[in-house]
């Protein structure tokens, strides 16, 4: 090639798609007037076309399966986690039991103390909570380790844990009444409450 | 696509091996292809591609998730190919390629199904010639040519994959192009 190396450089710039418009003009003008360079340029372009035109190979059909079979075995723990993720309800229950069983007895004992949800017009007498006649208590009423006598109206759910509730004939509860007396009821009560929170956590974790 | 890959990678990092299958499925052809053009035959291509994916899996925690996964994967695969080329006896792969049955098998398969056997023959002969000429390139030119013209990656990506300055990548592509031009100008 007798021409300036600069022209070959410009050819490469062109082929790399990095030539600026000014240099492209120089290259084009030169190619019009120089047969040798035009031939060289066309050979480059043909070479690229031929290389690009080689057929695309496909991995063997069982390739992915072979790779997966060759991977080091995953830890047991992880298989368990995936299983739990695919079974959120059971996962929620399992997680609850795992987390709660240890502290359950102490929670249970702590909760032997009397407690009641805070509504102004509830009356408390010797461990008995009274919804007085003619009164309307708004919101859910929860009584722990005590009794509940409903003579008025509760606009909400009533839950009595480890105690009993009496609904007087004049009394009225707009929501559900639930008594939780046994340890297993206690667990179940917490599970239902926790389950939805746990599922939320699992769903968050999926993101 | 990148988003899907990133999601699968996170699952794999958490330990969900099954999530890796989809990653393999997506990149298997291009990595296999890289191995085939770098090493010259299907057997080694499969071998090296499989090893590349296993390495990616084992080292997935060291993958910087801000980067493109394909760049990282190509880097692993290209390095494996280059290592293997360097370990080979210099004339082994040329002999294997010339006397190998690889091209013949491909030819007989395609020709028997083709309505236009002459055209297939011609293009397959050309394919074979190009394939062999790529394999004759020294490894440093072969890798850039394969990444650029077979895998159709950008110069920047190639520079990241090979961990070389952009200028070096360009020089190698120019030299690789020149070498191929001299061999392929009359085909
Ligand atoms: Zn000229």
UniProtKB/TrEMBL annotation, chain A:
Q: Which organism is it from?
A: Neobacillus driksii
Keyword terms, alphabetized = Membrane, Transmembrane, Transmembrane helix
Q: Where are the transmembrane segments?
A: 89-108
Q: Residues in domain Putative zinc-finger?
A: 5-37
The source's superkingdom equals: Bacteria
Q: What is this protein called?
A: Anti-sigma factor
Automatic annotation (TrEMBL), chain B:
Family matches, as InterPro entries: RNA_pol_sigma-70-like (IPR039425), RNA_pol_sigma-70_dom (IPR014284), RNA_pol_sigma-W_bacilli (IPR014294), RNA_pol_sigma70_ECF_CS (IPR000838), RNA_pol_sigma70_r2 (IPR007627), RNA_pol_sigma70_r4_t2 (IPR013249), RNA_pol_sigma_r2 (IPR013325), RNA_pol_sigma_r3/r4-like (IPR013324)
Q: Which residues form the RNA polymerase sigma-70 region domain?
A: 24-89
Task: Please report the stretch or stretches of sequence annotated as the RNA polymerase sigma factor 70 region 4 type domain.
Answer: 130-180
Q: Which Pfam families match?
A: Sigma70_r2 (PF04542), Sigma70_r4_2 (PF08281)
Top-rank taxon, per record: Bacteria
- Keywords for the protein's UniProt record, in alphabetical order: DNA-binding, Sigma factor, Transcription, Transcription regulation
> GO: which molecular function terms?
DNA binding; sigma factor activity
- Which Gene Ontology BP terms does the record give? DNA-templated transcription initiation; response to stress
Fetch the NCBIfam families from UniProt. Answer: PRK09641.1, sigma70-ECF, SigW_bacill
- PANTHER family named in the record: RNA POLYMERASE ECF-TYPE SIGMA FACTO, RNA POLYMERASE SIGMA FACTOR SIGV
What family is this protein classified in?
A: Belongs to the sigma-70 factor family. ECF subfamily.
- Entry protein name: RNA polymerase sigma factor
Q: Which organism is it from?
A: Neobacillus niacini
């Amino acid at each position: 090639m007798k021409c300036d190396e600069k022209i070959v450089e410009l050819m490469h710039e062109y082929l790399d798609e990095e030539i600026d418009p000014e240099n492209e003009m120089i290259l084009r003008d030169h190619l019009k007037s120089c047969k040798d360079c035009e031939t060289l340029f066309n050979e480059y372009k043909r070479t690229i076309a031929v290389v690009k035109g080689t057929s695309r190979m496909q991995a063997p059909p069982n390739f992915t399966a072979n790779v997966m079979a060759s991977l080091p075995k995953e830890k047991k723990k992880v298989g368990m986690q995936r299983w739990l993720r695919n079974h959120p309800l059971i996962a929620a229950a399992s997680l609850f039991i795992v987390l709660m069983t240890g502290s359950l007895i102490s929670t249970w004992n702590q909760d032997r103390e009397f407690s009641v949800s805070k509504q102004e017009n509830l009356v408390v007498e010797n461990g008995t909570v009274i919804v007085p006649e003619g009164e309307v208590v708004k919101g859910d009423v929860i009584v722990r380790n005590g009794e509940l006598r409903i003579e008025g109206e509760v606009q909400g759910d009533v839950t009595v844990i480890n105690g009993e509730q009496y609904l007087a004939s004049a009394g009225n509860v707009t929501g559900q009444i639930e008594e939780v007396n046994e340890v297993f009821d206690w667990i179940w009560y917490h599970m239902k409450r926790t389950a939805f929170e746990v599922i939320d956590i699992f769903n968050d974790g999926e993101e | 696509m990148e988003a899907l890959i990133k999601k699968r990678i996170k699952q794999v990092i958490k330990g969900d091996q099954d999530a890796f299958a989809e990653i393999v499925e997506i990149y298997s052809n291009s990595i296999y292809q890289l191995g085939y053009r770098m090493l010259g035959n299907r057997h080694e291509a499969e071998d090296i591609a499989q090893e590349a994916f296993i390495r990616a899996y084992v080292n997935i925690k060291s993958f910087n998730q801000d980067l493109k996964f394909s760049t990282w994967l190509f880097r692993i695969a290209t390095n494996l190919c280059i290592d293997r080329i360097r370990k080979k006896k210099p004339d082994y792969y040329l002999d294997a390629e010339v006397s190998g049955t690889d091209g013949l098998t491909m030819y007989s398969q395609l020709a028997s199904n083709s309505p236009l056997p002459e055209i297939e023959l011609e293009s397959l002969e050309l394919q074979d010639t190009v394939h062999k000429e790529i394999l004759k390139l020294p490894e440093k030119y072969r890798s850039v040519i394969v990444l650029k013209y077979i895998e159709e990656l950008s110069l920047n990506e190639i520079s990241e994959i090979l961990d070389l300055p952009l200028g070096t990548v360009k020089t190698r592509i120019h030299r690789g192009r020149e070498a191929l031009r001299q061999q392929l100008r009359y085909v």
